Amino acid sequence: MKKLGYILFIFLLYVTAYGSDSTSTYSLDISINRYSFKGDFKNLGGNPDCCPDVRTGTGTSPSFIFSRPFKLYYSSFDLSLGLAYISGQMKHEEDTEILLNDEPYNGVLLHSIDFDIVVVNLAMSKKFNISDFDFIMGLGSHFWISSNYHQKEELVEPNNRGVFSDTKTRIRNEYEAAIPKHKSLVPYVNFRAAYQIIRPLDNQFLSLKPFISAEIPFSSFINDGDWNYFKIGAGISFSFKY
Fold it and tell me: Could you tell me the CA-to-CA distances from 219 to 137, 151, 178, 229 in Å, in that order?
């Protein structure tokens, strides 16, 4: 999948250089995205206390995409460049023995990982129009810019009572660092449906279209283990002439 990302990157650079504008229309898309995460990894950053084998999580974060049309040979496509924030929490609960009033007691700990990832997106898409509806399918790649994660184990049952038997605290194994051994390129496929609610008003402003979208990656975020996501989003697309 890493090769697919590099092939896609080289191809998009090619069409950027040699693809001709089919029109002078440009678009700015602003969306809020809901992510569902699933991970299967045992450590991050060489931290041996991190990460049960399997965990799930969710997150909500924005993205911004600028696109322009181009014609490659006899077909018209859209080329887009975007910035996305991917943030959320993955968590896992498990039973553990704790101390309650200096006596052994069966409690529950919550192991959580909060993370923030910033990526730049480069993608190519094909649009199919039916009346005021647009249906779009695209291929793209995330280019990793920065990341951070914060993990900890915290007692959640019993509430406000008891401590871990080894640390005598309610929180242990707290750790914060950049996400290591991540993939520089993460290719993905994207689907979108849009509806035009405002038609052209003048020679500059062309249209306003709300849209919904879905995105599926072809590979994991990290090299050692699996860290995948599924994204759904909703937003507004502004089209204009420049």
Answer: 18, 23, 20, 9
Return the structure tokens found at 82. 């975007």
Give buried/exposed letters for 14-24 (b at 16+ CB in 10 A, else e). Answer: eeeeebeeeee
pLDDT of residue 75: 74
Percentages helix, strand, coil for the chain (3-state, rounded to 5) are 5, 70, 25
Chain mean pLDDT for the chain: 83
Question: How far apart are the C-alpha atoms of 165 and 215, rounded to whole Å?
Answer: 44
Q: Write 2-5 long-range contacts (CB < 8 A, 24+).
A: 2/183, 2/185, 2/219, 4/187, 4/218, 4/219, 5/141, 5/183, 5/184, 5/185, 5/186, 5/187, 5/219
| pLDDT beyond 60 at 11 | no
Which phi and psi (to 5°) does residue 53 adopt?
-60, -40
Of 71-85, 93-107, 109-123, the range with the lowest mean pLDDT is: 71-85
User: Which two tokens mark 95?
Assistant: 């039973």
What per-residue confidence (pLDDT) applies to 234? 97
Predicted model pTM: 0.82
Residue 114 tokens, joined: 């909060």
Say if residues 134 and 209 touch (Cβ distance below 8 Å): yes
Q: Is the pLDDT of residue 3 over 70?
A: no
